[in-house]
Amino acid sequence: MSTDLNTLRQLAHLSRLEFNEGNEQKMLADLNEILNWVDQLNNLDTSHVEPLVHLSYELNVMRPDEPRNTVSHAEGLKNAPRKDSDYFRVPKVLE
């Protein structure tokens, strides 16, 4: 499986990439190498491999979600680098 220069340019346009002449040839060679590798994977016999549903057979032990305050308001503000009465002071993000 190989890709031509026209297909690479269409892919570059769709992904908003720009290549100069030298990088275009290198990218084409790299893309063809990747596609050839994937094509080799497609040729593998996986008829005796069971489908993978989960990466691990471990189960999560879930605890009930119970809302509670673990830190009081005063304790939360105690270690704040800057505070203003009852609030954290942070640098302005939006103009």
What does this structure look like?
- The structure is a single chain.
- The model has no long low-confidence stretch (mean pLDDT 86).
- The chain has a domain at 5-43: Histone, subunit A, CATH 1.10.20.
- 40% of the residues lie in helices and 4% in strands.
- It has 95 residues and is mainly alpha-helical.
- The protein has a two-stranded antiparallel sheet with strand order 1-2.
- The chain is built from three helices and two strands.
Low-confidence stretches: none
**Head-to-tail CA distance between termini:** 52 Å
**Share of residues in strands:** under 5%
Number of helices: 3
Give the SSE string. HHHEE
Number of separate strands: 2
Please state how the strands of the largest beta sheet are arranged side by side: 1-2
Q: How is the main sheet built? A: 2 strands, antiparallel
Mean pLDDT: 86
EC number: 6.3.5.-
Catalytic activity: L-glutamyl-tRNA(Gln) + L-glutamine + ATP + H2O = L-glutaminyl-tRNA(Gln) + L-glutamate + ADP + phosphate + H(+); L-aspartyl-tRNA(Asn) + L-glutamine + ATP + H2O = L-asparaginyl-tRNA(Asn) + L-glutamate + ADP + phosphate + 2 H(+)
GO molecular function, one term: glutaminyl-tRNA synthase (glutamine-hydrolyzing) activity
Pfam family, one: GatC
Question: Can you describe this structure in just a few lines?
Answer:
The chain is mainly alpha-helical and 95 residues long. The chain has helices spanning 5-14, 21-42, 73-78, and strands at residues 83-84, 87-88.
